[in-house]
Design goal:
Layout lengths: L13 H16 L11 E6 L5 H12 L3 E6 L11 H12 L3 E7 L4 H9 L4 E6 L5 H15 L6 E5 L6 H12 L3 E5 L14 E3 L2 H4 L5 E4 L15 H8 L3 H4 L7 E3 L12 H4 L6 H22 L4
Parallel strand pairs: 1-2, 1-3, 3-4, 5-6, 5-8, 6-7, 8-9
Helix pairs in contact: 1-11, 2-11, 5-6, 5-11
The protein binds N-carbamoyl-L-aspartate (NCD).
């Protein structure tokens, strides 16, 4: 199956995800990576801050032979009122080659809007508001497959601010497709009601730890909230932080993931993040190979080659 765009984890069937994992693994183990994007541009369009996502997309694009054009909002004409669509149209006019657009934007639905407007140009959603972040779900799932063998029947706990987390939204969709057994937990006002249909909602983090095969700690996103949603970070850590003491309740084989950036000492203790059960840095590395698989697949589907 070939898809020209990746806007939502809903587009990923189990078979298609498996193909992307296979392709990512091939890229990882190949010395001579085929330059399938030679003569093409990847437009890295980031209207929000990013370290891992932007740099791993750009590294992935370069490894495939593409030219990378980076747009960050800070010094751009967006400050003069230029729209998203006009910005991207102008970047395409500069590139003057077949291009793939990687978009991160604070508005929900922005990636879909852009894909519809651009027609043939592939668009990959690198995070749209609090909505979705499908390549993060792919790299999280691939990391869990490496750690646990498969996701089928595995107990995955996602803890934290589920309401505002696009990572959690995409993870839940893809992990369910891949057969995981899902539990969400966090402060009551940050776990939306609709999740009851998707995952088990737990109100006691300690109680779910002994059975977990994997725990994903979400970041407390103080920067993305216009309102104060967590009055006290120490209080958060006490109930929802994966502290060193809490981690002792996990099975020896259980693994810990976090999409990053991590507020160490809030959602995760440094000691746990540095322990053998932490796969956090491997998530970051896996992001490069997964994004290569996504970019190469999108390019082929668009007839870029
Ligand atoms: C996440 C994001 O930006 O949605 N980070 C990431 O992409 N690695 C999660 C977060 O910011 O907490």
């Amino acid at each position: 199956m070939l898809v020209r765009q990746l806007l939502s984890a809903r587009e990923l069937s189990a078979e298609f995800a498996a193909k992307l994992f296979e392709r990512a693994a091939q890229f990882r183990s190949t010395r001579q990576i085929p330059a399938v994007l030679q003569g093409h541009h990847v437009l890295s369009v980031f209207f929000e801050e990013s370290t891992r996502t932007r740099l791993s997309f750009e590294s992935a694009a370069r490894r495939l032979g593409a030219q990378v054009m980076t747009f960050t909002v800070a010094n751009s004409s967006v400050k003069k009122g230029e729209s998203l669509l006009d910005t991207v149209k102008n970047l395409l006019a500069i590139a003057q080659t077949p291009s793939i657009v990687v978009l991160r934007h604070p508005a929900t639905g922005s990636a879909r809007f852009l894909a519809q407007e651009l027609g043939q140009t592939p668009v990959v959603n690198a995070g749209d508001g609090a909505n979705e972040h499908p390549t993060q779900a792919l790299l999280d799932a691939w990391t869990l497959v490496q750690a646990l063998g498969s996701l089928k029947g595995k107990q995955v706990v996602i803890v934290g601010d589920l309401l505002h987390s696009r990572v959690a939204h995409s993870d839940l969709i893809l992990f369910k497709t891949l057969g995981a057994s899902l539990t969400v937990c966090g402060p009551g006002h940050l776990v939306p009601r609709w999740m009851e249909g998707v995952a088990r909602v737990a109100h006691d983090f300690d109680a779910v730890l002994p059975e977990a095969d994997a725990v994903i700690c979400l970041r407390v996103q103080q920067n993305r909230h216009s309102e104060v949603v967590l009055p006290d970070l120490n209080e958060y850590r006490r109930f929802w932080g994966l502290t060193n003491d809490r981690a002792k309740k996990l099975k020896p084989s259980a693994v810990v993931l976090a999409p990053g950036p991590v507020n160490y000492g809030v959602e995760l203790d440094t000691e746990v993040g540095n322990s053998d059960r932490s796969w956090i840095l491997r998530q970051t590395s896996n992001g490069v190979w997964i994004r290569m698989a996504v970019l190469a697949t999108a390019a082929e589907a668009a007839g870029v080659k």
